[in-house]
Design brief:
By secondary structure, the protein is of the alpha/beta class. It has a single domain, classed as Alpha/Beta hydrolase fold, catalytic domain (Rossmann fold, 3-Layer(aba) Sandwich), CATH 3.40.50.1820. Helix content is 34%, strand content 16%. The strands form two sheets. Strands 1-2-3-5-4-6-7 form a seven-stranded mixed sheet, sandwiched between helices. A two-stranded parallel ribbon has the order 8-9.
């Protein structure tokens, strides 16, 4: 859930002010950081009116011919040498041990569909290595939670925590494709947070846009796609992987899946931990608020904010999640505990979900309910303070129930900015790039 992985620095109050100091997460403060754990949420949303995920996919079929069409491409940042890349990754706290090339970065804008299947535009980051073969293997990286639109991968290219994994993969020789999702980057409207169906369509269409653009650079994208994502992006990665395996695009072919620190079982693992106080308090506040505000826009969960949010937050909370407010503003505008945020009705809604919320959670909790025919690694950190460990256990069990054999990679207790959750992204990326590089 990483509210741009609410980088624990933001999660811990005053420490957020120190998050953007020299050589660390330069844009940490701006990120909601509440975390990668909410990656799970990303998997859970149903269209307004409680339509099913299948129905939502059908509504986009009328615009299938336009999906993934490239609208524009903007060069953003070039790191000309591998030394430049290594310095940027080291400055962001990431492992530079696999760097082989300099990189070129582009912001792509493309056609896709909104949660109701209507045409809309979205943006994303494409990073290419400055070397290697003409045909590139593709890594899709789906990022963790952020609310501030300028913290998306395509607008936080080299110094940002959210783009460091893409930089890692591109500098190792892959074409790194990182969608911003709807409503972030340059995309219009609010972000439908944790809506896996639209995250899946935006991610798939970003791959198509990248394939259309890459030949202009003298390269091509091969058929294989290696899929990974962190926090919110872990659920998005599972959604994209399933779509690719199911033939969502005739060109691309799923090769491997490696999500990190997802919230795959939101109803039975994440929500109880969040409401029960076993996760970091400020992260839990931000995730709860984001969930209710974003899903109310999609599913109409309440008539007025005062039904679920206590005063004075009931009059300000929805505006904070409009895409224009930074991480520090979200931090300052929300209380320190869930008890101070939610009304009794708000608590009951999340503790005992019914109706549209229950259906949305059913969709979210289904991201691991399939049988991958490719290698799968699920990455997790011990005692993750934002994504409850039980989420990964539930995902592994669901995959195994379908006959799959996922490997669960225990990253131990990685620390980054005093956060194991964020640390799992750093440590997981270092391991995944080496694993992907060894798959032929």
């Amino acid at each position: 859930m990483r509210f741009t992985e609410q980088e624990e620095q933001a999660v811990q109050g005053e420490r957020a002010g120190r998050a953007a100091t020299a050589g660390g997460l330069r844009s940490a403060l701006r990120r909601l950081g509440a975390g990668a754990a909410l990656a799970v949420l990303a998997a859970a949303t149903v269209p307004a009116g409680a339509a099913s995920a299948d129905a939502r996919a059908d509504t986009g079929s009328a615009h299938q011919g336009d999906r993934g069409r490239l609208v524009s491409a903007h060069p953003t940042t070039t790191l000309a040498t591998k030394e430049d890349v290594a310095a940027a990754l080291a400055g962001a706290g990431f492992d530079a041990g696999t760097v082989r090339f300099g990189t070129d970065a582009y912001r792509l804008e493309y056609r896709t569909v909104d949660p109701s299947g209507r045409p809309i535009t979205a943006s994303g980051l494409l990073m290419l290595p400055r070397g290697g073969g003409r045909e590139l293997r593709t890594v899709s990286f789906t990022h963790g939670t952020t609310s501030y639109r300028s913290d998306a991968p395509s607008t936080t290219v080299t110094a940002g925590f959210v783009s460091s994994p893409a930089l890692t993969y591109a500098s190792a020789g892959f074409a790194a494709v990182a969608p911003d999702y709807l409503g972030l980057g340059t995309g219009p409207g609010p972000h439908p947070w944790m809506d896996v169906p639209s995250e899946t369509s935006a991610s798939l269409d970003m791959l198509r846009a990248a394939r259309a653009f890459v030949p202009s650079t003298g390269r091509t994208l091969g058929h294989d796609v290696l899929v990974t994502g962190f926090s919110q992006g872990a659920s998005a990665a599972m959604g994209l992987a399933r779509a690719l395996q199911d033939g969502g695009d005739r060109w691309f072919r799923l090769r491997a899946v490696a999500p990190v620190s997802g919230a795959y079982d939101f109803r039975r693992a994440e929500l109880p931990a969040l409401l029960g106080g076993s996760l970091e308090p400020k992260s839990s506040v931000l995730y709860s608020a984001y969930l209710l505000v974003a899903w109310n826009r999609l599913h109409h969960l309440y008539d007025t904010p005062g039904e679920v949010f206590q005063a004075p937050y009931d009059s300000t909370i929805e505006a904070l999640f409009d895409g224009s407010h930074t991480g520090p503003q979200l931090f300052a505008g929300t209380p320190g505990t869930i008890d101070a945020l939610l009304t009794p009705h708000g608590f009951d809604m999340l503790r005992y979900p019914t109706g549209r919320l229950a259906e949305a959670l059913r969709v979210a909790d289904g991201t691991c309910d399939w049988a991958p025919r490719v290698p799968v690694r699920l990455y997790t950190a011990e005692a993750d303070e934002q994504a409850a460990d039980a989420n990964t256990d539930a995902c592994a069990a669901a995959l195994r129930s379908h006959g799959a054999d996922p490997a669960v990679v225990d990253l131990g207790t990685p620390d980054f900015a005093r956060s194991r959750h964020l640390g799992s992204n750093v440590a997981g990326t270092a391991d995944i790039v080496r694993w992907f590089s060894g798959l032929r």
